[in-house]
Amino acid sequence: xxxxxxxxxxxxxxxxxxxxxxxxxxxxxxxxxxxxxxxxxxxxxxxxxxxxxxxxxxxxxxxxxxxxxxxxxxxxxxxxxxxxxxxxxxxxxxxxxxxxxxxxxxxxxxxxxxxxxxxxxxxxxxxxxxxxxxxxxxxxxxxxxxxxxxxxxxxxxxxxxxxxxxxxxxxxxxxxxxxxxxxxxxxxxxxxxxxxxxxxxxxxxxxx
Length: 208
Known about the structure:
The protein is mainly α. It folds into 2 domains: 11-80, Homeodomain-like (Arc Repressor Mutant, subunit A); 84-208, Orthogonal Bundle (Tetracycline Repressor, domain 2). It contains 9 helices and no strands. α5 (86-99) runs antiparallel to α9. The longest helix is centred in the last third of the chain and has 27 residues, at 127-153. The protein is elongated, with a radius of gyration of 18 Å. The chain starts with 13 loop residues before the first helix and ends with a helix. Mean pLDDT is 90; it is low at 1-6.
């Protein structure tokens, strides 16, 4: 198995980091992990190849940083979403995981999910990428669990194990994404949301 070098490198300025992360994202979508290189990433930015290497070292260093950058963005997005109740918060969290941040960004979202599927295959043999996926998935599950805990505290949900419910929701999202990307079942995310509304949510609610 392979590992990526440690992050013993200087921190880039915030605006430079954001530009290079967007470049890494676009390059990963366009070329996939197998076709990715530092030069191809740099082509999506006005920054130089040498600067990219200075801050991130290798393409794996960029990929690891991009994964963290996207998880940070997702969590910031769901935390600032305005919702009226714990039920709506949990539904909003799930919808954003299934469909992305907006209808306008749908094509970009699914292009990246396709690239992520390839990256997950690489993670079987790459310890650093696998560990980054695990950290990211744990943070998303923590977000689901937090929403469930809020619902329990507000009396909207029954006394359930928030962490266990969160893992079920994560598995629902993963399965829907997999079928959408691999089998081109475009209705899979909608079907997953229907299952949540029909089976999961009624089991959580305190209402009769």
